[in-house]
Every structure is written in C-alpha cells, then in structure tokens.
Design a protein that fits this description.
The protein has about 375 residues and is an alpha/beta fold. The chain has two domains: about 140 residues, Aspartate Aminotransferase, domain 1; about 240 residues, Type I PLP-dependent aspartate aminotransferase-like (Major domain) (Aspartate Aminotransferase, domain 2), CATH 3.40.640.10. Strands 2, 3, 4, 5, 7, 8, 10 and 11 form an eight-stranded mixed sheet that branches. Strand 7 and strand 8 form a beta hairpin. Helix 1 packs antiparallel against helix 6, helix 2 runs parallel beside helix 6 and helix 7 runs parallel beside helix 11.
C-alpha cells in the first residue's frame, strides 16, 4: 500500500511550482552580484522571490533577508539583542532554534502554552531587563496559536521600574501558507520563516527585519543581501522559495486549508470515539488548521511512531529537530504535563493533499495499534 505522509509540520513535499522554478534557475549562469546581463538575470530571480515572500508576510521587500534556514535567521536576529539594551528571553515552548539562545526562559501555562510573559519584566531579572522576547506565532508540536493567531508585536510594559520597552522575535514558520499572517497593533522587531515548511526546498529561509536598522551580519565577506548576510546567494533555493510561497498563498485564498481543518476535525472526532483516554492537546484553544497532538497515557510516542511507520504511515513524536531523541516533549512539559504523559504523544500534521480516505486510514491503523498495545499491557499485569 502507498505510504501515507502525515508529518507536514516537519517538512512539506516540494510543490510542482517550486520544482519548476528551481529547474529554471539552474540554467541561470550568472552571479547575482555581477553587473553584466547574466548577473542581472540572476539578480532578477532573487528580487522576484524577495517580493513574493514580502507579499506573503506583509512587509516591504527590502525587509526580507534570505538565509540558509529559519535557524540561521533566528541566530541573526538574536545577535542584535545588545541593541535592545537587555537580555533575550524565550518562552519555554519555543522551537529549539530560538530557545537555545535564551538568557532567560519565560514561563508558560495551560493548554495555550502562552501566558502574560510581560510579568517577568522589571525587578525580577537575572542578568538585566528582558528586552528581546522570542514567541512563536504557532507551536510546531501542538499547533497552538499565540495571541489568538496574531503575530505578537513589540511594545512597552509597565513594570516596577517604570515603562520597559521590549522587542519581539516571532517564529512564523508554521503559520505562513496555512493561515493569513495577521500582526498585532505593532509588528515584531523580527520574524523568521523557512521554505520547506510550505512546499519549498530545504536549506533556504528568511529573516524579516521590521526595525529601522540593518542587522549586523554574523556572516561577513562580500556584503551580499545588502551587507546583511554575506555569501553568494542560493538562487536555486531562493527561486523555489518564492514560487512555493506564491503557490501557498493561492491555496490559502482558495480555501484549501479550510478543507484541511475539516479533515482534522473528522480525525479528532474518530480518535475520541476510539480512545476515551487520549488527550487532544490544545483542542479548546486556537490552533493551526492541520495539527493534532494526540497524547495517550502509557503509550510512548516513539513506540507509536515506529508502529505506524511499519504500517506505512509517517507521523512524528515532536518537532523534527528532536523527534529522533527518546525523551519527553519539552513543549508538553512546559505546558504542565508530567514526564510520562509528555513522552506519550504524537503529532499528526495534515497537508493540502491529505484526503478523507487518508484520515480514515490513519485512525483505523492507529486504533488497531492502540488495541494491540492495550492487550499487551493487560498481559503484562
């Protein structure tokens, strides 16, 4: 039977539009920094993609800085924290590419995995005021949206020492292409995203710089990307990124993700019928339209992943960067689940090509594996 891929939050299959754009870019021989005709043609591909990304995320093209990944984009943004006069604080539920840089871990609470982190401002500091805050627009493991689906902006908070400014670094990787990118009253200082989460190629991402200042580069050399990130541009990846995000926005406009949300609802309803003990993490709060985090106490996530893989179905037990590690989900621990429960969850993330038959097949196979797990557990008691 054909394999069933339900791990779109880890990476989404390459879109035909991206593949075609990349193949076309392979025949462009010029260096984008060269002034001759071949170089200008290569530069035009880069600038077209920059405009496509800007249109999708609601910024000016000049604010788009192409990087090798969202991970590099996060590093470039955090490197600017000294400009903001304080330390970098990240929510405990943040993706590792953001959280790894945190000087101060900010508390989370409840299913939302997000609370009034502003309360940490003021006197209760470790190394100084938290001036740059990392907060994802959507959590990659649970699909839970921060701030009701809006991208959290920068601003001020009233604290013990008076009005304290803060800037935000917002990971919009999982939102772009699945939902409209809607900003709070104020935009963040920085946003990061990655092409392969929306049907583009791996190895290309972007930092969106909403500040008035160009970031100090961490990669120095020839001064590419307007002196913000040196190194000859990956025009093949960039062309694929632009084409993919363009196609993703058309899908969004055409209501493709509304249909995905309906399939997710069907999946979760059938899971609830099959297993009364399974927890649908974040079910009662705003989530991405495609993401289900299924927590079944006593049934380890990696065991489920392996059993489903042998049955031809791909899901994950956490974010792709950490799903190979046999340990409890840090995100679920931060949300208040205990060690055993946090190790007993899988993530099912649907895509634009997921069908009703796919959802039915997943639940049927998952239910069968669960029943076999229950029988083994009873036999061992």
């Amino acid at each position: 039977m054909k394999r069933l891929y339900l791990d779109h939050n880890a990476t989404t299959p390459l879109r035909p539009e991206a593949r075609a754009a990349m193949i076309g870019a392979m025949d462009v021989v010029g260096n984008p920094s060269s002034v001759h005709g071949e170089g200008r043609l290569a530069k035009a591909l880069v600038e077209r993609a920059r405009a496509q990304v800007a249109a999708a995320v609601g910024c000016e093209p000049v604010q788009v800085i192409f990087t090798s990944s969202a991970t590099e984009a996060a590093a470039l943004a955090v490197a600017q924290k000294a400009r903001h006069g304080g330390v970098f604080g990240a929510l405990a539920t943040e993706h590792d590419c953001v959280r790894v840089w945190a000087d101060h871990e900010l508390a989370t609470a409840g299913d939302a995995g997000f609370q009034d982190w502003m309360s940490v401002q003021g006197d209760a500091q470790v190394d100084g005021p938290v001036a740059l805050v990392g907060v994802s627009a959507a959590n990659s493991e649970t699909g839970v949206l921060a701030a009701g689906g809006k991208v959290v902006g920068s601003g001020h908070v009233v604290a013990a020492r008076g009005s304290v400014p803060y800037s935000t670094l917002c990971d919009i990787t999982q939102v772009v292409g699945k939902m409209p990118v809607v900003y709070d009253a104020i935009t963040p200082s920085y946003a990061i995203l990655s092409a392969h989460k929306l049907g583009g190629p791996k190895g290309i991402g972007a930092l969106i710089n909403f500040t008035a200042d160009d970031p100090e580069p961490i990669l120095r050399g020839g001064g590419q990307e307007m002196n913000r990130r040196s190194g000859t541009e990956n025009i093949i990846g960039i062309a694929g990124f632009g084409a993919a995000i363009d196609a993703a926005m058309r899908d969004l406009k055409d209501g493709v993700w509304d249909k995905v949300a309906e399939l997710r609802k069907i999946l979760e309803n059938r899971v609830e019928v099959a297993s009364k003990e399974t927890i649908l993490v974040g079910k009662d709060v705003a989530r991405l339209p495609n993401t289900s985090c299924l927590l079944t106490p006593g049934w380890r996530g990696e065991t489920q992943v392996m059993a489903l893989d042998l049955a031809g179905i791909a899901v994950s037990a956490g974010s792709a960067c950490s799903s190979g590690k046999v340990k409890a989900s840090r995100v679920l621990l931060a949300m208040g689940y205990d060690e055993a429960d946090a190790a007993s969850a899988i993530r099912v993330s649907l895509g634009p090509d997921t069908t009703h038959d796919d959802v039915t097949r997943f639940v049927d196979v998952w239910s069968d594996k669960l029943n076999k797990h229950r029988l083994r557990a009873r036999a061992n008691t």
